[in-house]
């Protein structure tokens, strides 16, 4: 009498065509949002040591990258400014300057590559002399309501310059509702809000802070406003609040260590969820590949697919252009 398994799950894996046919999840360039760091000057490219392969670029160079991204099928860029140090201040007023680096980059890209979306970060850390995302009191505590008021001005400043998606990353309470109201009040009805809803006080942001020049400035940590990595119920409350206040989509950040949060949010709210594969995660993959621990291209595509499988509509990743090239090949 012959014995065979009643079900052979290996049967559908036996050939490439079949694996393709049975794939439950797809990853395409349309899933990728590419974060870019902008710096002053012209024809400038400044490599970031802790983020190998990523640079800060002057506005003209960023425009060229935007063209490249559009040709690769990447739908959207996320912009971050490295504000010149002499323009940083206690209250981060440069964030409100209609001619700041961010606004100049937005206008230049929108002018040259109107078909690509632009997501802009709302938070004061690239503008403050103390590196915090908001205004601080004498004891160094980040003030919620005073900060939210400035963030509204920052968001309007970006929307006026042509930003398509306002992405508040500051974690102040109530800011999404205030920003939504201000955008509507000024006629920016179609400007979206992607809320960094569940943003954790993470050790994975180090290279980003190098990139925007805030690492050396930061006094203390961000634990009084960013979330405790121990918490998951609280992430659902954050998401619920931001949705109630008018967010079009929500973000979970960092990415890979928080895929359980992505899944919970997706299952509970059934709204568009994005994840940010942050700078430290990128650096970890690059270091692993450089050390021979794994194949770089395979690591990149596997981790990005994991975000899709977990329920993400898209991923912010420094590997976006590279991944889009791999996917297009
Ligand atoms: C700033 C901001 C941070 C990141 C995105 N927006 C850093 C922080 O909160 O300190 C991190 C992104 C990354 O590490 O790639 N509010």
From TrEMBL:
Pathway: Porphyrin-containing compound metabolism; protoporphyrin-IX biosynthesis; coproporphyrinogen-III from 5-aminolevulinate: step 1/4
Annotated Pfam families: ALAD
Ribosomal protein is among the record's keywords: no
Recorded catalytic activity of this chain's protein: 2 5-aminolevulinate = porphobilinogen + 2 H2O + H(+)
EC number of this enzyme: 4.2.1.24
CDD domains: ALAD_PBGS_aspartate_rich
PANTHER family membership: DELTA-AMINOLEVULINIC ACID DEHYDRATASE
Summary of subunit composition and partner proteins: Homooctamer.
Protein name: Delta-aminolevulinic acid dehydratase
Organism: Sphingomonas tagetis
Classification lineage: Bacteria, Pseudomonadati, Pseudomonadota, Alphaproteobacteria, Sphingomonadales
């Amino acid at each position: 009498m012959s014995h065979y398994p009643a079900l052979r799950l290996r049967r559908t894996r036996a050939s490439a065509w079949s694996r393709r046919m049975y794939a439950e999840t797809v990853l395409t360039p349309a899933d990728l949002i590419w974060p870019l760091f902008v710096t002053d000057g012209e024809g400038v490219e400044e490599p970031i040591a802790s983020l190998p392969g990523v640079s800060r670029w002057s506005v003209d160079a960023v425009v060229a990258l935007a063209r490249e991204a559009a040709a690769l099928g990447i739908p959207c860029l996320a912009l971050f400014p490295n504000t010149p140090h002499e323009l940083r201040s206690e209250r981060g007023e440069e964030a409100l300057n209609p001619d700041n680096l961010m606004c100049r980059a937005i206008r230049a890209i929108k002018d040259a590559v109107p078909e690509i979306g632009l997501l802009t970060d709302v938070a004061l850390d690239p503008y403050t002399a103390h590196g915090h995302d908001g205004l601080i009191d004498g004891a160094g505590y980040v003030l919620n309501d005073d900060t939210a008021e400035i963030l509204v001005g920052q968001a309007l400043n970006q929307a006026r310059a042509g930003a398509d998606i306002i992405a508040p990353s500051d974690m102040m309470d109530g800011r999404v509702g205030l920003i939504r109201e201000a955008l509507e009040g000024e006629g920016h009805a179609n400007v979206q809000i992607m809320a960094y809803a569940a943003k954790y006080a993470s050790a994975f942001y180090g290279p980003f802070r190098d990139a925007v020049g805030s690492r050396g400035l930061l006094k203390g940590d961000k634990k009084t406003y960013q979330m405790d990595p121990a918490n998951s119920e609280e992430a659902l409350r954050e998401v619920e609040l931001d949705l109630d206040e008018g967010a079009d989509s929500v973000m979970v950040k960092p990415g890979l260590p928080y895929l359980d949060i992505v899944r919970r949010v997706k299952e509970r709210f059934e709204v568009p969820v994005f994840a940010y594969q942050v700078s430290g995660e990128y650096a970890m993959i690059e270091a692993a590949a450089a050390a021979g621990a794994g194949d770089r291209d395979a690591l990149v595509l596997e981790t990005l697919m994991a975000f899709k499988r977990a329920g993400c509509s898209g991923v912010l990743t420094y590997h976006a252009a590279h991944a889009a090239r791999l996917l297009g090949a």
